[in-house]
Write a structure and sequence with these properties.
Elements (H helix, E strand, L loop, with lengths): L6 H11 L2 H16 L2 E2 L7 H5 L7 E5 L24 H14 L10 H4 L3 E5 L4 E2 L11 H15 L4 E5 H7 L9 E5 L4 H4 L9 H11 L8
Parallel strand pairs: 2-3, 2-5, 5-6
Antiparallel strand pairs: 1-4
GO molecular function: uracil DNA N-glycosylase activity
Family: Belongs to the uracil-DNA glycosylase (UDG) superfamily. UNG family.
Pfam families: UDG (PF03167)
Amino acid sequence: MQVKIHPSWQTILESEFTKPYFEQLILFVKNEYNRHTCYPKGSQIFAAFDHCPFENVKVVIIGQDPYHGPNQANGLCFSVNDGIPFPPSLQNIFKEIESDLKIPYPKSGNLERWADQGVLLLNATLTVRHSEAGSHQNKGWEIFTDAVIQAISNRKENVIFLLWGGFAKKKGAKIDRKKHIVLETGHPSPLSANRGLWFGNQHFSKTNQQLKDLGKKEISW
């Protein structure tokens, strides 16, 4: 089956695309997109990979599933299209960046600028039905994104994984922590952040310090 994904990932993930679960998943997704309004738009389902080729991956942030409101999701976790109001989790991410790095609150919620610098913004589930959070969970996407994380863990070294909240921590269980750097904190959602589990984590300055120590270019958050 031909999947439109960046050539560097095509090579890495080729074996997944021919597995029965993936073929069933693609049939499910096509059917959903034909019958319902789903997000992100079809051309952006693999946007996280298109903006961040395998060889460029320096940082991985793991999200759960895409935003399910009109024009929000663009294929990158926590990111929204330009001109769209920032959802609460993204607001809290930006507040932490502002206090951690002492830089102005970003004007755009479109995180393509991070992905283009080597941040893989990976949702566990890559599609969702309009207004139905989690509607495409347990259909096969999680198996696929586990394989992505496993491939990064196996084939690369010194990647910085940012695991925010219980879901991301479970998703990151397969990461080889002898080869990679893992930073964990609470989820940026208001529920978690208001309980003191998000603010003050300094993941953005810590990530840049690690990149600097590794002789890699820091991320312009």
